[in-house]
Amino acid sequence: MNTIVSKKKPNPIDIHVGSRIRLRRTMLGMSQEKLGESLGITFQQIQKYEKGTNRVGASRLQNISSILNVPVSFFFEDAPGDPSTGQPGASEASSSNYVVDFLSSSEGLQLNRAFVKIDDPKVRRKIVDLVKALAADSE
Question: What pTM did the predictor assign?
Answer without folding.
Answer: 0.63
